[in-house]
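*** Protein under study ***
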Amino acid sequence: MKLRDIFNSPRASRQPQQPANKTGGDIILKIAQEFQDRSRKDIQKWRQAITAAEDPENPRWYLMQDLIDDIVTDAHLSSVIGIRKASTLNHRFYVTDKNSHEQLDEQTQLLEKKWFYDFLDAALDAISRKYTLLEFFKDNDNICFNVIPYRNVCPQLKRVYPEASGDTFIDYCISPNVIEINHGSKFGLINDVAANVIWKRDLMQSNAEFSERFGMPLITATTSNKADVPRIDNALKNLGEAGTGVLPNGTEIKIHDLANAGNPEKVYLEPIAFHDKQVSKRFLGSTTIVDEGANRAQTQVHEGTLDDKIALDDKRLIMFVVNDYLFPLLQTFGLPFDNTKMQFQFDETEDLTLSEQWRITSEALLHFDLDETEIQKTFNLPIKGVKQRTALPGGFSANFR
């Protein structure tokens, strides 16, 4: 049963005085056509969004999600979110048997499709936005899903509101085709830096106004002939970039350079950089990964923090969602997935560099016979055969054809 079918069922609403819509239309399409607040967000609207989202009796998230949609257009914020997501999405994964721990090629290949990568990307958005709600369906032999608009979801009460501010709702818990990814943060990570992005935008706006007013020097003219004022005024207006003007004899011109008045770099630009650093710390754990002034050693250390700690937590969330929710759903679609016998996991060997993997493989070859196909696939080597090893005194070995 799809979410739109539930909406049309008698159980869709717990409020009988406002019955569910009986038109049978697509609920996703109806939600998408609803008006969304695109006005400029400020600190007051941010606080109102928090209050609405944590209302103990009737929590609503459309104010918070509209605010997130607005501030996520910030270039720095969207950049660090993309870097954090890439640290998980760029890792190889596979499905293994729980008992033998052998890789299951059939199930792994079924997941190596565009829809699954889109699913992982949408699931990781829950880290930033607090939650993601997905409705799955099968189109012929293809697995498809829709992301339920964030502004219409209430994760505390497990509801979807066709109208974000309306009273009619859908209990999405009774739909077997819906998967909810809920992050452990209270409002999502973006909320932790929302004030920084809002203040940064205010600073950028103020800096733009300052540049507009004082970036080009003010030019004034003084004359003792009142009759020449219109001609002087017209000449000054024509003094643009590389402009010229013809003024009466005796006219005095003054250029007032106020571009550096009040030290705009410290007043505007340095605080903007400060807020960017706060955003980087919250999402990446450091500032050196995206800052220009960082040296290579510092960047590598902090990249290790991102990959080995932060991304490890994100991958653990994904593994729980795939194993506990996605596999049972795919099984209902007739696909060969059984979370009681198999599990999804990321390839942990990718945390090692190629040289480290080669050193471990070389040492293992001294004691074990390894699968040459796996070695060829791992290191992309054109292996033609296996050399024979002859034991030498002292525990050494020699290779012969």
In short: The first strand starts at residue 93 and ends at 97. The chain is about 45% helix and 15% strand.
